[in-house]
Design brief:
This protein has 14 helices and 15 strands. By secondary structure, it is α/β, with parallel strands linked by helices. Bound molecules: nicotinamide-adenine-dinucleotide.
Length: 459
């Protein structure tokens, strides 16, 4: 059969292409709004009826995405959400943004990607572009997703092409029946410095026509695309970015422990090192890793590397150090209470901030959850305050059953220890230190507090 990529690119150029985004979470929803904002008729697909309902009502379920932007896209008739996957056949381009978590034993859980590929495969049309954005190990797109999509008889052969990052040169002239590519998501929720469209988009595909089709699509949403010569290179590039963060965070976490023992302020050290204008990027210590990406993605590579009989020692070591951080925090709270002649057993500990990073509402893999669990397991009476997280809903690993308490002077005074786990900007840390008998700070949030510094313990 074969599909001519020029026709696809013309539809993109003329904004007559219909774009489907599967998985309307932290990644998919902003991407769908970006597509709609560019004038594409955009349909979001999700299996979560609650999210579909909210979108239909023009409401947002992600703190940093204003409801107004959803309403605007709907009113302009560029955006709609559905759980009717038969409508996938109407789409010209389908972008997959579903979760890629780890299973019970730390192995990649590709079930969401597989289920989605099945749904796409059931309605696959000649000439459609399918792009996977979910973070995963090299080989997912051209082995696993391709296998499912080709079951219906349409073909997208893996065929080498070359690129200098901008232009794409085919080694042979074959046209696939559909186009398949991988383009890693680089969303950084809450980042006010860079908007989604300003972050260059890496694109790698199975063959030159797929690369050109995906490039055309993303060039219309993003200021810059960077082409690589295969879907595997694009998958690996995303892992490199996240492994780089994971390993460097582990490094500063380890150095923090050394600094604490040597009575050196690690934060001052980092500020000093940062003044070097080349060869140094600052990473900061904290209570442990959080979020859907950094604690998880590196282990996708560890798993895949085993197939090639190769260890990934940096990743394993970084995992070990970062996983130990919540335990270090709880030990520090115990020691700090001990200094005041108190025990953790029976003490009331108020955790400040449970989102995995400041000023967002995402608690996935947040170290605060582990810390709350460890504190409670050791007999502490725990509570938390987080302006972004009104309650901790049941999750796969945690069922803490807690609701955020108001941050009043009475609350602070009623707790033996305030433990800063996430340094949300809106919290008045002067007041926290003023009213609390003891403050354990994992984020240097109290660096500017002038009074009662004797109550602050850094950890
Ligand atoms: N959150 C981030 O900051 C971020 C950044 C970069 C990359 N990523 C990667 O992007 C991917 C998505 O992450 P996210 O944070 O948006 O996840 P998310 O959990 O916020 O959203 C995923 C959405 O997919 C939906 N879904 C699950 N299975 C589905 C199916 N079979 N069909 C349709 N919808 C389905 C869920 O209901 C949910 O709404 C992951 O691979 C993640 O690693 C995330």
């Amino acid at each position: 059969m074969g599909t001519n990529v020029t026709g696809f690119c013309t539809k993109i150029k003329e904004r007559t292409a219909k774009v489907g985004v599967i998985g309307l979470g932290y990644v998919g929803l902003p991407l769908a709004l970006l597509s709609a904002g560019e004038g594409f008729d955009t349909t979001g697909f999700d299996i979560d009826p609650g999210k579909m309902e909210k979108i239909r009502k023009g409401e947002s379920y992600i703190n940093h995405i204003p409801a107004a932007s959803i309403r605007k896209a709907i009113e302009k008739q560029h955006f709609q959400a559905t759980d009717d996957f038969t409508r996938l056949k109407e789409m010209d381009a389908i972008i997959i943004c579903v979760p890629t978590p780890l299973g019970k034993h730390g192995e990649p859980d590709l079930s969401f990607v597989h289920n989605t590929a099945e749904a796409v495969g059931a309605h696959l049309q000649p000439g459609q572009l399918i792009v996977l954005e979910s973070t995963t190990y090299p080989g997912t797109t051209d082995e696993e997703v391709l296998l499912v999509l080709e079951r219906g008889g349409l073909r997208c052969p893996v065929s080498p092409y070359t690129t200098d990052g901008v232009t794409v040169t085919a080694s042979d002239g074959g046209e696939p029946d559909f186009f398949l590519a991988f383009s890693p998501e680089r969303e950084d929720p809450g980042n006010k410095q860079f908007q989604t469209r300003q972050v260059p988009k890496i694109v790698g595909a199975l063959n030159a026509p797929s690369a050109l089709a995906a490039q055309a699509l993303y060039q219309s949403f993003f200021e810059r695309t960077h082409m690589v010569s295969s879907s595997r290179a694009a998958e690996m590039a995303k892992l490199l970015e996240n492994i780089y963060r994971c390993v460097n965070i582990a490094l500063v976490n380890e150095l923090k422990l050394v600094c604490l023992r040597m009575d050196i302020d690690i934060w001052e050290v980092i500020e000093a090192a940062k003044t070097k204008p080349f060869g140094f990027s600052a990473f900061y210590p904290g209570p442990g890793l959080g979020g859907h990406c950094i604690p998880i993605d590196p282990f996708y590579l560890t798993w895949k590397a085993r197939e090639y009989e190769l260890p990934t020692r940096f990743i394993e070591l970084a995992g070990e150090i970062n996983t130990a951080m919540p335990h270090h925090v709880v030990n520090s709270v115990t020691a700090a209470l001990g200094q005041q002649g108190k025990t953790l057993q029976g003490s009331r500990v108020l955790v400040l901030g449970v989102a995995y990073k400041k000023d967002i509402d995402d608690v996935r893999e947040s170290p605060a959850l582990k810390i709350l669990e460890l504190l409670a397991a050791n007999g502490a009476v725990v509570a938390y305050h987080d302006p972004f997280v009104p309650r901790l809903k049941k999750m796969r690993r945690y069922d803490l059953g807690l609701e955020s308490v108001p941050l009043t002077a009475e609350t602070l005074r009623a707790h033996e220890c305030a433990l800063i786990v996430t340094d949300h900007s809106g919290v008045d840390y002067d007041r926290v230190v003023n009213e609390s008998p003891l403050v354990v700070d994992t984020r240097n949030a109290t660096s500017r507090v002038r009074h009662h510094r004797e109550k602050i313990v850094r950890c």
